[in-house]
Structures are given as structure tokens and as C-alpha cells.
Amino acid sequence: MKTAEIRDKYIKFFEERGHAHIPSASLRPENDPTTLFTGSGMQPLLPYLLGEKHPKGTRLVNSQKAFRAEDIEEVGDNRHTTFFEMLGNWSLGEYFKKEQLPWFFEFLTNEVGLSKDRLWVTCFAGDESLGIPKDTESAEIWKGLGIPEERICYYDAKKNWWSRSGTPDKMPAGEPGGPDSEVFYDFGTEHDSAFGAECHPNCDCGRFVEIGNSVFMEYIKKEDGSFEPLPQKNVDFGGGLERITAAANQDPDVFNVDSLNVVIEHLSKVSGKSYLDEENKESFRVIADHMRAAIFMIVDGVVPTNTDAGYFTRRLIRRAVRHMDKLGVDKETLHGVVAPVVEVYEGVYPELTNKKADIERETALEEERFRATLGKGLKQLEKAKGGKLSGKEEFTLFSTYGFPLELTLELAPELNIEVDVEGFKVEMASHQELSRAGAEQKFKGGLADGGETTTQLHTATHLMLAGLRKYLGDNVHQAGSNITTERTRFDFTHPEKVDRETLDKVEKYVNDAIAANAVMELVEMPKKEAKASGVEGSFWEKYPDTVQVYTLKSKDGTVWSRELCGGPHVKNTSEIKGTFKITKEESSSAGVRRVKALLE
């Protein structure tokens, strides 16, 4: 079976059960400053899981593009990928366990054709310290579906709890989460005792592969660290499209599914080497995964750079270049991988076809840059010939010159260099910790916590943009934003400094709208119609064909703001507490200004 067939079957199955099909969101999350990438289907739906009404109703289904940067180093085995499609269905406060688990079981056994005798399931073992009970209800449902007790396993929160932040202890206040029930497919391969004496669903030997996870998102973390029930009990399901396809084909190697195998077939032709040779498999897999991920990143606007999200696109392409070299493929040919990937996805993601030339150009440029960088790094490495390369020096080679550790280790014997690998790992760990801390500070708070203050500031930011456009002209558009509980930081297109007098007028505009008790109206309409009618919006290409238009209008008919967005917002500006104040105006970049503002 092909991935397109599984995807279509899944969406049709849930449409027949009253679910509205929604498009995949961009890999660059909107209104979620806690993360660089969309790594799950629930991220774009957070406001609705917290209670906001979705325009499509309470039952939703889609196939969401996802990228998980933490899996980069895992790629090389038969099942880990950085990019994947997550099949998802949601109940926003309607159905729950007794509907969700039988439906997924029916989909796997009737639609995909998996044998129930190959299915194992896991449930949450409970946590007395948090007052969250053992999930015996899910276990009983599975038993009723024919899964015997010996194939039902209980795990603690490290394995059977889901939130964007991980386990309950890592969740910030205001974050939703809940216990989950995972389904694993047993490929029946022999257990590798290197991974432990006993094999079980969460064993890493490769026998079991997780193919679906039903999260019962029913809790929210409080300020004191305890949990309370969400106003609505949600179902948040995610299933790996590629893994389900692999199970359907009785093949534990996910790289044999069509959407990855097209790259492997291309590589076999240009390298003259076989994927069946064990010594080649890692390189084939890394290139197939990394290039597919990079292609989808670039089409969503994440081009290779040294910072933030673009750093990962750069890292993916550069690792792929190294493995192309290992396969002995001619230099400057990596961009040839783009065409087969675009072809296999063109019916689902037409933007790949539309931007194919751009993707090929970015890939070729990045390979060219990397090869120039490698030359500089090699000169640095040769300076240590016959001596020892400290962990710090190797990290400098990696961070400054883009010289991978594995390349240093390959060349070390030729140059008679001793490499302090453990020292390098210490330096890398320190760098990652600093980067993590910096990211947490940079993206601290924000709309993702669903709190009242950030929601108020988010709506006030819409009003501020409307005010800026009123007094500066229609050349003003959003260029970026970051909203925390303390302030809003907003970037907008404008060629010169904005004087204080104009900022005062914008402030008054926002505060007048707050005083007018304007009502927030949500209307869903075709994107073309919204754009033609003058709705304000940036990044139009990232929105689906049907968009949400938020309009703030007072009783006398005055429209204060009309803009594309994904929420959340206040229902009435009377909910915005305090006086809006612009505290700073400065340059952000060429042609872009930045303001900071707060409610005081």
C-alpha cells in the first residue's frame, strides 16, 4: 500500500463519522512562541482544545506535516525520521474513549487490514502524587475489542502521558495534557538482547513500532503544580502515516514506503550502490529523511541560515551532503533529490510543484556554501597534524566551520591526530543547554499558554496594527510578533522611524477601541474572497484555502480591526484590562520597524 492510499482511507473513514477535514498547518507554527516547528497535529488546534469554538465544529480530521528536530541523531535505523505526516482526529469536548479506541481499532483492522493478533496497546499506569488514576477504562475497552490482557501494558508518565512539554513535571502552568493509549505493531522480528533481557512494546530493538496514540486531553496544570480537569474532555489522536503504511506492507523498514523509497531508488541510480548492502543503509536513510524534511521546510519558508529554524534546514542539507560523499555520488548533485520527492507528493501538496525550482536552487546553494566551509575547516584541522585536538577545538571546527565530528574522525588517522571525543561531547552538551535556555527565554510565555493576559494582548496587538495602518498607510503589514504575559513585541513593514506623536495616536486608537466595547466576530470565508475584500493579513501563502477572519466592531458599526488570524481573542474589548501603552520603537531590520507595548 502507498502512503496516499492510507491517507485517503483515514480521512474518508473519519469524514464518514462526522469529522470535518481541515488542511495541514505550516511547519512554522503560528501564534506558538514555545517551539520552532510544528511537531504534532494538536499544536495549531491548542486554542480549541482549551475551549475556543472551531468554525468547522467539534469533530476534525487531517494529515499534518510535522518535524521533530530532536530525532536528527536517531535517523539511520529502520523507523526514525525527522519529518513525517501525522494522521489526526480530534473531538473537542464531544466523544471520548469509548468511541475513539474502537474507531481506531476498526480503521487498522478493517481499512488497513492489520491483524489484531499483531497489535499491542499501552495505557497510563496512574500517578497518585498528582491525583490522576490508572487508566483501567481504556484497558477494558481494548479487552472488549479482542486484545488479550497479556498484550495490554501499563507505563508511567514518561511513556503514557502527552503534552507538548512532555511529562507532568515539565509542564508549565496553563498547559493542557493527559494520559494516552498507544498502539504498537508487532513485526515479529527476533529480539536483540542488547536492548534488555525482555522485549516489550517500548523496547528499542525494532520488533515493535508505535503506529498510533490516542491522547485523552482532560487536564490542565495549575500555578501550584497540581492538575484540574479541563472544561471539556478532548480526544487528540496522532498516527504516523509512514509507520502505518509500513505495518500494512508487513515491512519493518519505514524507508521502504513509497514517499521515502523514491529517494532511495534515485540514490541507487546515481551512486550505483544497493540499499540492500548494510554498509550503505545509514547513508541512504539519512539522505532520504533529511532531504525530504529540508524540502518541506524550504517550501514553508524555512531556508538555510545560521540561526533559529533555518539552522536545522542547514544542518539537514549538510548532513545529507556528507552522506552523498560516503556513497561516492558526484558533488553538486544533491538538488537532484528534489524532483522525486516533489513528484510523489504533488497531488497532496501542490506548493511543492509550484516552488520546485526555488527548492532546487536553495539546496544547490547550501551544498556550495558547505563545500567552501569544509575547505576552510580542513585547513584548521591540518594545523593539529601529529598532535591532539581538544574537545573545545573540535567544537570550534564544528560550530564555526561546520566541520562534523564524524568527518574529523575519518581524517584523524591520515593526519595522525588524536581527537578528544568526550571533551567534544561535553562542549556540545554545554552549547545545547545554553541554546535551550536561550530559546526558553526568547520564547518565554506567549500565546501558547492560553492565558487571559496573553489573549488580551493578542487582541490589542490586532488593534495596534490597525492603528499603525491608519496613521502610516497601507504599506504597513505584520512582519513578526512575540507576545508574552508581560508585553507584546511587534514587527511591521515601514521604511523609517515612527515619531512619538504618531505612536500616541496609535495608542489612543487602541484605547478608544477598548472603551468602545467592540465585539469580536469570527467569519470563515475563501482566502481569495478575503484578500479581494481588503482583509488585512501577512504570509497569505501559508494560509489554507478557507481562512478565519476576525473583526472587531462596535455597536454603532465602527470596524476597529479586520484581520486574518488563528486566535485566541477576547470576545469583547471590555475584557481587555488596563491602558495600552507603546513603550519602545526601534529598527528591526532593513525596512522593518519594531514596537514593544503593554497593558498597564
Structure, described:
The protein is 39% helix and 21% strand. It starts with a helix and ends with a strand. The chain is built from 18 helices and 18 strands. Helix 7 (258-271) packs antiparallel against helix 10 (338-345) and helix 9 (308-326) crosses helix 12 (356-382). Strands 1, 2, 3, 4, 5, 6, 7, 8 and 9 form a 9-stranded mixed sheet that branches. The chain has a 4-stranded antiparallel sheet with strand order 12-13-18-17, covered by helices on one side. A 3-stranded antiparallel sheet has the order 14-15-16. The chain has 4 domains: 3-255, 2-Layer Sandwich (BirA Bifunctional Protein, domain 2); 257-382, no CATH class; 384-443, no CATH class; 451-599, Threonyl-tRNA Synthetase, Chain A, domain 2 (2-Layer Sandwich). The protein is of the alpha+beta class and 600 residues long. The protein has helices spanning 3-15, 46-49, 97-111, 136-144, 157-160, 241-248, 258-271, 278-299, 308-326, 338-345, 350-354, 356-382, 391-401, 405-415, 421-442, 452-472, 500-515, 527-532; strands spanning 20-21, 59-67, 83-92, 119-124, 152-155, 161-162, 176-186, 208-221, 227-240, 388-389, 418-419, 478-483, 488-493, 519-526, 546-553, 559-564, 580-589, 592-599.
